[in-house]
Each structure stands twice: as C-alpha cells, then as structure tokens.
Amino acid sequence: MNNAGQAYEVVIGLEVHAQLLTKSKMFCACGADFGLPANTQTCPVCLGMPGTLPVINRMAVEMAVRAGLALNCAIRSKNRFARKNYFYPDLPKGYQISQYEAPICENGVVEVPVGEGRKPIRIRRAHLEEDAGKNVHDGDNRAVSLVDLNRAGTPLLEIVTEPDMGSADEVVAYLKMLRDILMYLDVCDGNMEQGSLRCEPNLSLRPVGQQAFGTKVEMKNINSFKFVKDAIEYEIKRQTKVLNEGGKIQQETRLWDVDKGVTATMRSKEEAHDYRYFPDPDLVPLDLAQDWIDDLRRTLPELPEARQKRFVTDYGLPDYDAGVLTTSKALADYFEACVTLHNQPKIVSNWVMGELLRELNNAGCSAASSPVSPERLVSLLQLVDKGTISLKVARDIFPEVYSGAAGGKTPEQIVKEKGLTQVSDEGALEKIIDEVMAKNPAQVAQYRSGKDTVLGFFVGQVMKASGGKANPGKVNELLKKKLAG
Amino acid sequence: MALHKLTLRELSDTFGKGEVTAAEIVRAYTLRINQVEPKVKAYISQIKDAAMVQAEALDQKLKGWRRTMPLMGMPLAIKDNICTQGVLTTCASRMLATFVPPYDATAIARLRGQSYLLLGKTNLDEFAMGSSTENSAFGPSRNPWNLSAVPGGSSGGSAAAVAADECVAALGSDTGGSIRQPAACCGVVGLKPTYGRVSRYGLVAFASSLDQIGPITKDVADAAMLLNVIAGHDAWDSTSANLPVPDYTKALKKKDVKKLRIGVPREYFAEGLDPEVEQAVMAAVEELKTLGGEIKDVALPTTNAAVATYYLIATAEASSNLARYDGVKYGLRSKQNKTLLEMYMKTRQEGFGPEVKRRIMLGTYALSAGYYDAYYAKAQAARTLIRQDFEAAFCEVDLIVTPVMPTPAFKLGEKSEDPLQMYLSDIYTISVNLAGNPAISIPCGFSKTGLPIGLQLIGRPFEEETVLRGAYAYEQATDWHKKRSTVR
After folding, report:
1. Which helix (H) or strand (E) element contains residue B402?
2. What distance in Å separates the CA atoms of residue B137 and residue B91, rounded to the nearest whole number?
3. pLDDT of residue A141
4. Is residue A192 scored above 70 in pLDDT?
5. CATH topology of domain B3-261+467-482
6. What CA–CA distance (Å, rounded) separates A80 from A103?
7. Which of A53, A85, A283 sits opposite B320 (nearest CB)?
8. How far is B426 from chain A (nearest CA, A)?
9. Of residues A53, A56, A274, nearest to B200 (C-beta)
10. Residue-level pLDDT at A72
11. DSSP A194
12. How far apart are CA B280 and CA B283, in angstroms?
C-alpha cells in the first residue's frame, strides 16, 4: 500500500524533568551540587543502605507547589509518594521514589505564543521524584563500569503535558516559556546542557481529520532547544515516510543521535518495564494546609508574561524590547534597577539589550552576575545625558567599564583620565569649524549653492578633528550658522 | 551472686548502687555464654571482647560518680537485622554476611546514649522471614527449654538468648509476630509496640508498613524499662509518631486490672488451637477476672482473612525492599559475571535463601500489572476491614486476650518443608501488625512436655501502658515468669 500524498497531523506531548534548586537532596540531607568528585555527595540514605529511610524535603514540596501554581495547576493537598521498581546500577534502592496515583499538581495550562496568537498547552500533571545516579564507563578498560551516586536522590519535578503541540516550533515555544517560568520562580536553573532541564517529547502522526491518535514514539537524549527542534523535525519526516510507504509505526523509545542527526531505537514496547508502582510505605501521605498553599500563591513573583505586558504599558517600550528584557528574571530585574535610577526606559533598554547583553553573552554570564552594576551603567548614561561625553564616546568606553568594573574605575574616572570630556565650548568648536571650512572650500561652495546634504560631511570632519569629543548638537548648530556665511 | 540470673531491673539496681562493676557483669555473661551458647546457638556474632573494653572504660569513667541511667552497663543482645555501627549486621543472610553498617539504628543510638553494653547480634530467620529461626544462613537456633524444639521466629535468637540467660534483655523486630511468637516459645516476655512508637531507622526493612522494633525480656517490668529508652519520635523516620512518651514503668504501680474491660475474641479459639494452649489461655482469662477485670466476648470477624492479607502486603513490600541487594554497592557480589543481568541474577540466586526467594516472587506477582487490583489493592482493602474490626472491638473493651500461637514450640524440621503450616503458626499475631496495635506475649503455662505457652494481650494504639498494666498484674499473680529453662 502506498499512502503517498496523505496529509498528516502531528501530535506531540512533552515530559520535562526539572531539577529543583533545593540545597539538599529530595529525601536526605546531602547537598545537591554539580561537579563534585564521584560519590562524595552521598550518605547511607541516598546510597540505599539497609535500614535507612527517606524523609521528604519540605523545600522541594514548596517549589513543586509554586511551579504548579505558576502553571495554573490544581494543587492536590493530599498527595503521596510511590515506588517505581526497576533494577539499574545507578538506582541504589532498586526503586525510584516518585509519585504515581496522586501527583502534587494536576490540570494546568499555559498560553504559548504561536505565530501572531497564543495557544493553550494543557499540563496533565507535575509530580515530585528523586533522580538516579550516573553510570560511568571506563574508557581505557571497557570491562569496568563505575557508578557515581552524587546525583542520586536530587529532587526533580516531572511536568507532563497533554498531546497539545503540533510542530517543533510549538514545542520550542512551550519549552522556552516553561523554562522562563521555572527560572523566574527560582525553582530550576533551566540549564539544558547540564541536564537540570531535560525534555522527552512523544510524537505521533494521524491522517488529517482522524480522531484516534496514531502510535506514539518517545524521544530521549535531547539537551538543547536546537536538538529539540532537530529531533522532532527528523522524527516527523521519518514517521511520514514510514506511513507513506504503507508501513506501521512501532511503539518504542528512540534516542536522538547528535552526531548523525537521526533518532534510533533504544527499546521497544516489548522491552518496556513493569514498574510495579505501589504507595511507598516509608512515607506518610502529604497533607498540605490550604493556608500554606494560599500563602505561596500570594507570594508568587510576577511571571514573565505579566512582566512583559507591564514593561510595555508602564515604560512605553516596544513589544520587542519588553520580550527581550523579560527572557530572564535577572535581566528584567537589572533593567528595572537601572530605570529606578535613570528614568529614561527606552534609552536604558537600548543599552541593556545592546552593549550590556553583548558583553554578557560573550562572557557567558547572566545579568545576575554582571560585573557592571546598574548604578555604574546608569552613571555612564548620565554622563551622556549631562552632555559630559558623547554617545559615541560612551559606547567606545563601555567595554572598559564592563571589563574593569570589578573594583575598576568609574566611568567618570575613565573619561577624565583619557580626556574624553565632550567639547561644548563655542569658541573652541568655532576654531575647529573654521579650520575645516578653510581646508574644504569646494564643499563650502557646494553647500552655499544649495546642496544641504554636504552638512553631514562637515559634521563628520569636525567630529573627527575633535577626536570624537565635540558635542554633535552644538557642532550642527554652529556649522549651519557659519556655512550660511 | 549469679549475675546472669538477675532481671534487667535487678541488675540495673545492683549496678546503680555500685555493688557490681560493668566488667564483672560482662565477665559473668561471658562465662554463661561460653557455657550454653554451643547448645543454644542464639548468636550470629558475639562481641564479648569489645563489650569488655567498653565495660572497663565505663567503670573508669564512673569512678566516684553516680550511675543514673537505667540501661547503663546493661548487657544486651540485638537481633541481627538492627544496624549497629561498626558491628557486623547480617540479617542471617549470605547476602549481608560481611556487611558492617557505618551507622546505628535510632533505637541502638538511644541505648548507646545510656552506655549500654552490646554482647552480640542474635540469630533470626533470614531478613526476618520465618517463624522458627530455621531460615538462617548460619544454621538454626535451639529452644533452651528443649534443644530439639525451635525457639520460634523470626527473633528466635533474641528470645533464646534471654531464656538461656545469655543476655539480660534483647531487642527483636516484629512484622507478623516475630517478637511475640518466639517469646511465647521460649517462655519470656516480648512486646510489639504500636506501629510508629519506635523508630524503624536502621531496622533492615522486611515489610515497612508492619515492621516494629521491641523488647524481649525476662519479665514485664524489664520490657517497660527497655521500651522507655527506645520509644519516641525520630525525625529520620517519617512513620514514627510525634507523640509524648510516658514513663512506662509507672504503668506497673497497680497490681490489678480493676475497671478494665477485657475482650476474648471467639474467632481465636476455633479449629487448629491446641487444647493445652486453649486451657492455659482460658485459665489466664479466669485469673484476669479474679484480678478485677470485666471479661467480655468480642468479635473480630475478619480474622480469617488475616493470613492471606498479610502474605500479600508483607511480600509485596519485601519484594521492593530487597531489590537493593543487587551486588552493586555492598554485600555479596557473585564472581565472574559477563553481563549486568548475569551479575544481578547470580548474586541474588546465591545470596538469598529459599524462603526469601519465595516471598520476593509472591510479592513481585502481587504488584504486577494486571494483578495489582486483584491482590495488592484487595489486600489493602482487607487490611482496612481488619483495622476496623479492632477499632470496633476496642469501643467495647480496653484489652483483648488471645493465644500467641496455636501450639507450643514445634520440633526442628517439623514444618520447614511446609510453608503454609509455617505461615499458620502466626495466625494469632498477624492481625495485630495489620491493625498497628501494641501487643505483648507473656508466659501463662507449660505443656505436658514442658514447653512454655504464651498469652497475648492486645491494646489500643499507643496504649502500651494498659497492655503493660494488664500483663504485670497477671505476672505478679502467677509464677510462670520465675521458671527458668534448664539448659546449662
């Protein structure tokens, strides 16, 4: 059978694992940091030693509730943990403590920007669980595999959508929004490369107009926005080809191969585990007080979408600016700190989005750890505002303000030392203008014969002659006067 | 003075007055253990030398000071499924034959806080799964009253050690009767506290929703003394109850049961109960009446579902609890494996005994997709009914009196080939674990062949005081607890 030409609808759902930014692990007092020597961040509890017991991390529960509220979920005040049983060397107890029948958050929705409009993506559930450790396969001696349990027991929030997305772009838009929200709440650092935000899309196709879902395929090992887009687009093509050639999609889990740019079978449905979930008898069911949940709701920070709208209405910024500035909470906070000191939102926005973001991106830095404080940036802007230096000089010295900022010189000091103070003195400027006019009699004649556009040439020459320090407004004014004769 | 014949309270008083040193106590018990242990085989590990070092250090520290803590210098034996820092904790399994925990169970930490002395770790059915201590990878223990009989189980080593005066008192664990049943078999006192009364942290899990640590002692007062120390909330065990702990020895002031309503459940005196046991228990009921108790019939209609319910819930939890023994981190790892799967399979084949494997398989089945609702979920529903039975009965009465096991201790090997018969020896103790209530086993007579018979008193949750009061009144009115095993 050949189905070539059949149009398919793409159906995608997403599971996201977000590592929560708690100080300690989900069920013990061990730290939850990255990059320590193997097995140094462990204790009898997270090593699964005989007789040890888990104790729920209150902060993880709080973070899950805050995330749930931000994702418009219903919070299940009575929720409980369950054991997911399977054998793997990185899973010390032989089961993962997760939530199954009674997850902490259910039935949420986020409105994701798609094209001109917005599309609601429903959240089926978000539940707490512990992470596994990591198997390390020794490169030199392939007979040996080692296990690092530093990560075992770190808290995760697994956020599962309904199959509401229809393209790679929609998935990326949802994922970006989810990441922004989690980062705004300070519940996840959103770092996909380090694995603190992992996404596993499931994807199926169905002929346009058909109600029933097609067979779905799950994808793993996707650790950047680019790979999400690439993997989904590859998988849509692969499934379309299979169906067009009359084949059937196998229910399976496929791994994204970054180097080859393809997905490949990891395990089929037949190899899927029976996890034998059952309520964990070591943990009493949680019973969250409604007052506590209400308090958390009241104290939720402003979320990216609301903040973006506010930036447009309160500061009169273009949508584009507001969008860029609110992509991270740190950047938006930085912007607002500057505006509080220097109430010229559009000028501040230009600087933050332009010079500052360029330097931060080059350094791989977040606005939260910017070496230039809002105070120092504003002091530079104020030098321009007061006419002490020109905009051009300000831009020229910004890299120095940025790099030397930690304990370095203030913009005022730099300007003073380099003698960059703008020249506004009419006598000094007239002297320069006279020299320039004397050197360029032909252009003076052109201007006087009615060719106004030559004015630009003279401004340029005067600025150049002044080493960029001349006040351009004054230069313009004086030039017009002189050239008029 | 034969120190090993004293009760915990007597020895503690003697030590408190400075009439005996800790070193003398350890020396006396070393002699006693050397004498009878080859016959009884109560211990898996003896650490008498370490105990002597500790005893001498304690004596040194105490010079000129008062000895204020009740368990200071008291020589105890601990069931080998309770973790003791730096001391082998095997669970009577090849799997953990070399396992030395780097931490103490909370109950042990509390004993240590009183400077108790650890004489050794006692034998049990592997991972506490059994009723005779025959399922031990290190061989069975014997009943000090009759060396051809089992000491009961799974805390058989602890009960035998107390009965044979190889320690002054011991800790056991009770999942379906594992403290009370061996206490009955060995003619000593065994108390299973309310679920949540004693922290489970460091008790190697068999069935997490049923397991509870408790004392095995020579008399009721000793049980109260020991419970005083180990009971109480523990931040490391979320299932431990955050309730105040009373002084349990105060419950022993009254030597009567006046104004107590005592229930006798007819379901416990049905088919399968040995007439000698029935007679002894009914005589005990009469005695409680004489002591002022109001005897009433009560109904526990769901009793017949208890064994089936228990063997679904306990095995389901066990199948998951024992998954951690995979050869990766500690304990046994089978040698020469080509693949990961082979390592898992061979390690678990070699490491676990037949009863443990049987229960892992039963539990895995009960939790499997397609069977969960029919077995595990149904068992949970039945458990709720069993708990409600007890709640209803305890509206009518303050204590419930029953046999501990259907027969006196059976012979070694008698039931080891018939798991179902073995499971039925816990028929009177299992419901209490499913309901969570506290219960005690105390001696109430002997069979014609000279084997002890136990009486079970069950109380409302967290009313250990009432249980101890009833048990103490009966004990003081009778002489059974004064009888000692003849092993020498």
Report:
1. strand B399-403
2. 9
3. 65
4. yes
5. Amidase signature (AS) enzymes (3.90.1300)
6. 7
7. A85
8. 22
9. A53
10. 96
11. T
12. 5
Bridge partners for B274 per DSSP: none
Report the distance separating Cα B272 and Cα B278, nearest Å. 10
DSSP state of B124: -
* Shortest Cα–Cα distance, A192 to chain B (Å): 30
Q: Is A55 on the interface with B (CB under 8 A)?
A: yes
By C-alpha distance, which of B204, B8, B250 is closest to B108? B204
Angle at B303 between CA B285 and CA B458, to 5 degrees: 40
Give the tokens for residue A471.
Answer: 């006040």
**Which tokens sit at A334?**
């930085």
Consecutive H or E run containing B220? helix B220-230
CA closest to B339 among chain A residues: A143
- Answer whether A387 touches B (CB < 8 Å): no
The pTM score is 0.89
Q: Where are the domains of chain B?
A: 3-261+467-482
ipTM of the complex: 0.96
Residue A92 contacts B, CB cutoff 8 Å? yes
Q: In whole angstroms, what is the distance from residue A379 CA to residue A369 CA?
A: 19
CATH architecture of A426-483: Orthogonal Bundle (1.10)
Give pLDDT, residue B424.
Answer: 84
Contact residues on chain A for B83, CB-CB shorter than 8 A: 50-51
- Are the beta carbons of A50 and B96 separated by less than 8 Å? yes
What tokens were used for A343?
């109430």
Q: What angle do CA A136, A140, A146 make, to 5 degrees?
A: 25
Closest CA to A57 of A158, A106, A129: A129
Which residue numbers of B are catalytic? 79, 154, 178
Cα–Cα nearest to B124, from B9, B58, B42:
B42
Residue A388 phi/psi, 5-degree rounding, is -65, -40
Contact A51 B368 (CB under 8 A): no
Question: Rounded to the nearest 10 degrees, how much is the dihedral formed by the CA atoms of A288, A291, A293, A297?
Answer: 180
CA distance B365 to chain A (A): 9
Domain map (residue ranges) of chain A:
8-291, 302-418, 426-483
Nearest chain A CA: its distance from B106 CA (Å)? 10
Q: Given CB atoms, is A276 within the 8 Å cutoff of chain B?
A: yes
Q: How many CA atoms lie within 13 A of B331 on its CB side?
A: 25
Shortest CA distance from A89: residue in chain B: B328
- CA B187, B193, B198, B200 torsion-angle sign: positive
- pLDDT tens figures, B247-300: 999 999 888 899 999 999 999 998 889 999 999 999 999 999 999 999 999 999
* CA B242 centroid distance within chain: 23
Asked if the C-beta of A85 comes within 8 angstroms of chain B's C-beta atoms, the answer is yes
Query: Which residues in chain B have their CB less than 8 angstroms from residue A89's CB?
Result: 326, 328, 340
A52 touches chain B (CB under 8 A): yes
A334-379: pLDDT as tens digits = 999 999 999 999 999 999 999 999 988 888 787 888 888 899 899 8
